[in-house]
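Worked example 3. Consider a protein that binds iron/sulfur cluster.
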Amino acid sequence: MLAQALQVVHVGVDSEEVASSNPEPELLVDLPPQSVPGMLPELHLSARELPHVRERLARRTSHHEDTTGRRQDGDADDAGHVHCTRIARRRLTLRSVKYARRHPAIVGGPSADEVARRLLTWFDASHRDLPWRRTRDPYRILLAECLLQRTRVASGIPYYERFLARFPDVTSLAAASEDDVLRAWEGLGFYRRARNLHAAARVISERHGGRIPTDYDSLAALPGIGPYTAGAVASIAFGARVPAVDGNATRVLARLFCIEADVTRGDARRLVWALASDLVPASRPGAFNQALMELGATVCTPASPSCERCPLESLCLARAAGVEEALPRVSRRAKSPEVRVAFALVTSGARVLLAHRPASGLLGGLWSLPGGEVRARSGPSDLRALVAEQTGLRVGVGARAAPVAHTFSHKKWKGAVFRCTSRSSRPPSHSARFVRLDELRDLPLVSFHRRILSKLLPRAGTR
Ligand code: SF4
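Given these inputs, the predicted complex is written out as structure tokens:
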């Protein structure tokens, strides 16, 4: 954290003061008031903290090259001033500095070299053999990173293999229709990931000649590619020295450095990223990032970390304090609300009425039975209104045909599918149509609607 804080301020080291007889000489950190309004004018670090600050500044900045002869960030001048002027001033906040001050253990925490050495040795001997670890192909790594966000490895592997068989490279993915991409993703949830990956493939095809960019900034500029994915691809596929901090890595770092604040928020979140940036080594950064995540997935697990098997046990501040199971602290999430839903099953011969869901909403881009969220005691009126809005058809609502119970990350849907009738078989809306049952196999459908349709209409195409 201090390295992060100090990257963005001028750091003045008073050599005479350090050398004086004062048992606790100080390092003065001048905080430029114009860059951070309202900030304290200076921060005092003790002599015990000073070597760590210097070491971290040197580590953090040693890879910067300056061919113009200007002083580099982290260089010390003759008067003992360490200059750190180039990097992201906007990241510094008063609270983040205060946070570092309240947690002096971070300053004297585990040495980055030792953490990297132990983690890499452990990873080489213990990592799981996963399909995306057998390749340096950036497309495969990008696919795996998108696919595994919020998805368990065991569930993700079959999708990874099916997706690659269907779209073996960026060019084939860029040329595919959105329906085809969503069909390959169907059942995995969080469909925005698939649409973003598809959009990224098109940008790579159009602006980068079909080659995935090699640097972090260009990767992060692709549609839907956030800091984690950009860091993972840049480090694993291209060997860039950048962090990749997912939930597993966050948990390990929160425990290793005994961070007691809520690591999903604000300063503590930035602190975790800063620590990860400090730790990632110049040699094998991709393997290091994977090792950190792998440790979180297999050893430093949420409920009961297996510290006795952990290569970092003797370095871990939470373990030393006996609080490893209490960390990381996260704000308790509100219980997922239960929301009533109703959907219409409207058939016309061997065809069924489907609506194309808007890209921006829940289950965006998929096809579904018309309907959705209704008021708890609305009777058939809300369903009639939803069908009219989504398809342009007026329907009569009949008997209940099947129950619906589906859980999302933030809410639960509970309700039913109702048999409905319509006088017209031609919906006026462009986003709705009657679909032949044998065509269903090729359309990306809301997965629980596909299950219901395969029971209610046995001729409906299934996987
Ligand atoms: Fe996690 Fe325990 Fe290892 Fe600390 S010692 S990093 S708490 S598994």
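Take a moment to read the result before moving on. The longest strand covers residues 395-407. The chain has a mean pLDDT of 79.
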